[in-house]
Structures are given as structure tokens and as C-alpha cells.
């Protein structure tokens, strides 16, 4: 009996780690899919923005050649009136400094005004201009200039009905009366077009009011409601089912304000064998031994059937508000599986519930760069049972902050994210009081650095590079460790074993080729990836404290409106 008890204890530890892997793999798969879609969307957005900016640059006023016959005045001081502070002091000094203490003619002054106007355009103020002030007497050696800001008279969305005005309130990152900046309109474009159902176009037209413009937005919505069939072969083995299937529901703008709701459910072919022969501990009489199988069962020649039950639920809600993005997420995993001892079978059940809320803010944006700051809170509740006896019941509450940047780099898209996570004493979370130095910490600190590069080599061939680094000086629970070798990680190991650690680095290279890109028939993309990962565990002196693995994947992704196959 002692051997069986020891065996159960060891198996429980293996299952406990596996459950954390499954939870992380499900989240990691969704995040990788979202990253690929976001990279493609941003690449198109930056390309379009670059085309618009290049067009604006081509429309800039070129400098004129200075004539030797024109009258010139010595200018020792240049005053620039900039009531809206569209240019900072350094920019003013860099431009004006080239013309102070010089003899200037009309051509020189025109070139100075051109430099100022071009700088305004480069900063996104495409309807603002620099000009000469009315009160000028060049004989005083002083030149007075001013910047005339181009403002927005009004913003029109479709027919400007009640629902249109509500969308403007949430999605338009500028207002009537403000100085027009193309970067604010870029955020507005992103807020609309992140929804697949939206197709927003923008036009800037002159207003009857001097130095004002009208921004006309037109948005045509396609199908708001999409139901898709999901399938993948991410299962660990035949006992736990290799193939999974399910359905996803996506609703664009359910409240009419540019928000989005996403829900998915996946499961396996379930097996629920008869377990009526099992007895609970409470039902046993003193001295009675629990049965090891149904009547007539002989462990030497019979095999008891295993149990299989897996349900994966995922819910997400996204709301855009000007330069802010609010995201709410909830997921639930219910997994029942079996493991065998020398003479019987035991059923183990794990239930994981996660709720998260995140708020992101766009800090900086121009034609080539985007910088955002994020703050979030996550609550994880994990429970494990063997038969009907509870083995663990743990709640972790995690706060995080992140700084995320994206820029164009050698014709591709380079992104980086620096994050900090902290286990918190909130929402019923576990505390670390009286824990040993080698015990996993609930009030941990963890740092993450993720970089990614997306480069279209041709119209169909794409290269992706990802690096994920995790660093913590604490001993982490399995759900918070960096796991390597599962789905969405180093290939070739999700059915043979994973490694995880408190410190880790993971590098991935992928080449993909878009064979088919059709709105009617979907997208077919074969891909080849090679990855390497290394981990290390704190407060662990055994030979298993560190490890590494490398592997390759040759796979195929198929996505269409109503079917997703990976």
C-alpha cells in the first residue's frame, strides 16, 4: 500500500505540472495567432501611412534659388508666434538659427517659411503653415513670423445619426476645434479597422471657415456576426485525444460602439467509462478495503478503461476609447484524465479559471513608430482532485505593467515588449507567510522581455523572428514558470515532455509561404520553424535545475471565414 501511495504522489506531481502546461499552451496559442494577425495588419497600416507621408513630402514647397539682385536686410532677431506650441524650442532654434545674423532677401525668407512648414508637416500638422506676420519692419533688423494652425471645424461620420455620434465619441481620437494632426487620425483609423467587419475611409476637405478643415469618415460594415469551426492536433497522446475540435463566435460592435466580443469552445471525443464500482472513503466500513475494479476484474489479465473529458472555454471583450484600449478576458479549463497503478486506475480532475483585465494607452505615434503603455490584473484559480478528494486549491492574483513599442525596420516590422509582474495579496490570493525558501511563491516578482520581427520577403514569403525572455529570483508555481516545448513553443516535444523554469530564454525563426489568399476559399499557409529554448530553476541543486531543447516544425495553417485548421 505504501508503494501505491508513493506512486500516486509522484503521478500527481507530474499531472500538476502538465495541467499548468495545458493552461499556458491554450493562452499561448491564442496570443500567437493574435500576434500574427496584428503584425499583418500593422504592416499594411504602416505601408499605407508611409505612402501618404511620401505624398505629403512630395507636395512640400521646394526651396528657391537666391537671386543676387534682390534687396537684402541684415536680420539679428527672428520672432516666431506659435500660440498652439506646435514646434518645441529645440526645433525652433535648429531652424531659425540658420537665418539669424545674416543678410536676408525675399527668397531667403521664403525658404525659412518653407523649412518651418515642412517641419510642421513632418510632425503630422498637415494643414498648418508658417507665414510672415503683418507687423514687419526689416530695417529694425527684426523679422516677425507666425504659425497659423489648421484646425478641425467638424468631424462627420456617415450620416451623423445617433449611433454614428456614439461611435465618434468612442473611436475618434480628436475633436472639433483641435489642431488637425494626421497621427490622431491614424489612431482613429486603427480604432475602426481593427474590426474585420469595418472598412473605414477618411477624407479631409477644406472648410468655408478660414484655416479650418472638415474630416469626413465613411464606414461600411460587413457581417458583424461570424461563427467558425475550429480544429487542431494539439493533444498530448491518444489517451488524452490528439485531435481537438470546437467552435468560435466573433461579434463585431455588439453595442454599436466599435467593441468586439469573442468566444471559443474546444473539446475532445469524450470517454466516460462505468465507475459505479468505485467507493468513496466515507462509504467504507472499518476494515473494509476499497475495490480495485468491477466484479470479476483481474489486474493480471484485464485492463480498466480510461476516462477522457476536456473542455476549453475562452471569452474576450475589447473596447476602444480614443487612445485607450480596454480588454476583459475569462477562460476556463476542465480536464479529467486517468492514470494507472499496478492494479487499478485513478481519475484525476483539474479545473482552472482565469479572469483578466487590461488597459492600454497609446503614448506616441508617427508614420513609423508606435509606443503604448499597459497595465493589467489577472486572477487565477486552480483546483485539482484525485477521485473526489481535493489535492490542491490555489488562487493567484497578478498585477502587471508593460511598455510596448513597434517600429519599421529594414522593410519589416520590429516590436518589443518589456513587462513586470507581481503576485498580489488581493481577491483571495494565497500568501507567502511562513513559506520555506524552496517553496513556490505567490507574491513573486517576474520580468519579461519579448521581441519580434516580421519581414515580408516577397508578396507571399514571410519571415518571422521571436525572442521571449523570463527572469525571476523567486521560486514560481508551475502556472507562472516559463514552459518550453509545448504547443506554440519549441517544436516536436508537446507529446514527449516539456521543460520549465524561473529563468528562461526562447528563440524562434519561422518561414511561411502563402499558397492561397482568397476571401472566398480562405488562406493556406505552409510554414517551417526552428526554435531553441533554455531554462533554469531557482533554489534547486539537482541535475534537473536547468535544461534546454531545440526542435523544428513543418506545418500548415488554414484559415477561412468559417473554418480554422492548424
Automatic annotation (TrEMBL):
Domain ShlB POTRA: 151-206
InterPro entries in UniProt: Hemolysn_activator_HlyB_C, Polypept-transport_assoc_ShlB, ShlB_POTRA, TPS, TPS_OM_transporter
GO cellular component: type V protein secretion system complex
Coiled coil: 32-59
UniProt-listed Pfam families: POTRA_2 (PF08479), POTRA_3 (PF17287), ShlB (PF03865)
Entry-linked PANTHER family: OUTER MEMBRANE TRANSPORTER CDIB (PTHR34597:SF3), SLR1661 PROTEIN (PTHR34597)
Keywords assigned: Cell outer membrane, Coiled coil, Membrane, Transmembrane, Transmembrane beta strand
UniProt organism field: Fusobacterium nucleatum subsp. nucleatum (strain ATCC 25586 / DSM 15643 / BCRC 10681 / CIP 101130 / JCM 8532 / KCTC 2640 / LMG 13131 / VPI 4355)
Annotated GO biological process: protein secretion by the type V secretion system
Residue intervals of the Polypeptide-transport-associated ShlB-type domain: 73-150
UniProt-recorded name of the protein: Hemolysin activator protein
GO MF term list: protein transmembrane transporter activity
Residues annotated as domain Haemolysin activator HlyB C-terminal: 212-557
Amino acid at each position: 500500500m505504501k508503494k501505491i501511495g508513493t506512486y500516486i504522489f509522484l503521478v500527481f506531481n507530474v499531472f500538476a505540472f502538465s495541467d499548468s502546461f495545458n493552461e499556458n499552451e491554450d493562452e499561448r496559442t491564442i496570443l500567437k495567432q493574435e500576434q500574427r494577425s496584428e503584425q499583418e495588419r500593422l504592416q499594411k497600416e504602416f505601408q499605407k501611412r508611409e505612402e501618404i507621408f511620401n505624398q505629403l513630402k512630395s507636395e512640400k514647397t521646394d526651396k528657391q534659388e537666391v537671386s543676387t539682385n534682390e534687396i537684402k536686410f541684415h536680420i539679428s532677431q527672428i520672432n516666431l508666434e506659435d500660440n498652439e506650441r506646435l514646434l518645441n524650442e529645440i526645433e525652433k532654434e535648429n531652424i531659425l538659427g540658420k537665418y539669424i545674423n545674416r543678410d536676408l532677401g525675399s527668397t531667403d525668407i521664403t525658404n525659412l517659411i518653407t523649412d518651418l512648414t515642412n517641419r510642421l508637416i513632418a510632425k503630422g500638422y498637415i494643414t498648418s503653415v508658417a507665414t510672415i506676420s503683418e507687423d514687419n519692419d526689416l530695417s529694425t533688423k527684426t523679422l516677425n513670423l507666425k504659425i497659423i494652425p489648421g484646425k478641425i471645424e467638424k468631424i462627420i461620420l456617415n450620416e451623423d445619426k445617433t449611433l454614428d455620434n456614439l461611435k465618434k465619441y468612442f473611436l475618434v481620437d480628436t475633436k472639433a476645434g483641435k489642431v488637425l494632426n494626421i497621427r490622431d487620425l491614424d489612431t482613429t483609423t486603427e480604432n475602426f479597422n481593427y474590426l474585420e467587419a469595418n472598412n473605414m475611409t477618411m477624407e479631409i476637405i477644406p472648410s468655408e471657415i478660414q484655416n479650418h478643415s472638415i474630416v469626413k469618415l465613411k464606414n461600411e460594415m460587413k457581417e458583424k456576426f461570424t461563427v467558425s469551426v475550429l480544429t487542431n492536433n494539439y493533444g498530448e497522446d491518444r489517451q488524452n485525444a490528439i485531435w481537438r475540435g470546437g467552435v468560435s463566435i466573433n461579434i463585431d460592435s455588439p453595442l454599436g460602439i466599435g467593441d468586439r466580443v469573442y468566444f471559443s469552445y474546444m473539446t475532445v471525443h469524450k470517454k466516460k467509462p462505468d465507475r459505479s464500482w468505485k467507493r468513496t472513503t466515507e462509504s467504507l466500513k472499518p476494515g473494509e478495503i476499497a475495490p480495485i475494479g468491477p466484479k470479476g476484474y483481474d489486474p493480471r489479465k484485464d485492463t480498466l478503461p480510461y476516462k477522457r473529458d476536456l473542455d476549453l472555454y475562452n471569452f474576450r471583450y475589447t473596447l476602444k476609447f480614443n487612445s485607450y484600449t480596454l480588454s476583459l478576458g475569462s477562460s476556463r479549463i476542465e480536464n479529467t484524465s486517468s492514470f494507472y497503478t499496478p492494479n487499478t486506475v485513478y481519475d484525476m480532475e483539474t479545473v482552472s479559471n482565469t479572469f483578466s483585465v487590461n488597459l492600454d494607452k497609446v503614448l506616441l505615434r508617427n508614420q513609423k513608430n508606435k509606443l503604448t503603455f499597459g497595465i493589467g490584473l489577472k486572477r487565477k484559480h486552480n483546483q485539482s482532485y484525485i477521485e473526489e478528494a481535493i489535492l490542491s486549491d490555489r488562487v493567484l492574483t497578478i498585477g502587471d505593467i508593460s511598455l510596448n513599442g513597434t517600429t519599421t525596420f529594414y522593410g519589416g516590422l520590429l516590436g518589443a515588449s518589456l513587462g513586470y509582474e507581481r503576485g498580489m495579496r488581493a481577491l483571495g490570493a494565497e500568501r507567502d507567510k511562513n513559506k520555506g525558501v524552496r517553496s513556490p511563491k505567490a507574491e513573486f516578482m517576474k520580468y519579461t522581455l519579448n521581441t519580434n520581427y516580421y519581414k515580408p520577403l516577397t508578396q507571399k514569403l514571410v519571415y518571422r523572428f521571436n525572442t521571449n525572455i523570463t527572469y525571476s529570483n523567486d521560486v514560481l508555481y508551475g502556472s507562472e514558470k516559463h514552459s518550453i516545448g509545448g504547443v506554440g513553443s519549441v517544436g516536436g516535444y508537446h507529446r514527449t515532455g516539456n521543460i520549465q523554469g524561473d529563468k528562461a530564454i526562447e528563440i524562434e525563426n519561422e518561414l511561411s509561404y502563402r499558397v492561397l489568399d482568397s476571401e472566398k476559399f480562405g488562406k493556406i499557409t505552409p510554414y517551417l520553424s526552428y526554435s531553441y529554448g533554455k531554462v533554469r530553476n531557482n533554489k534547486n541543486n539537482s541535475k534537473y535545475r536547468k535544461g534546454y531543447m531545440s526542435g523544428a516544425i513543418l506545418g500548415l495553417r488554414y484559415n477561412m471565414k468559417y473554418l480554422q485548421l492548424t
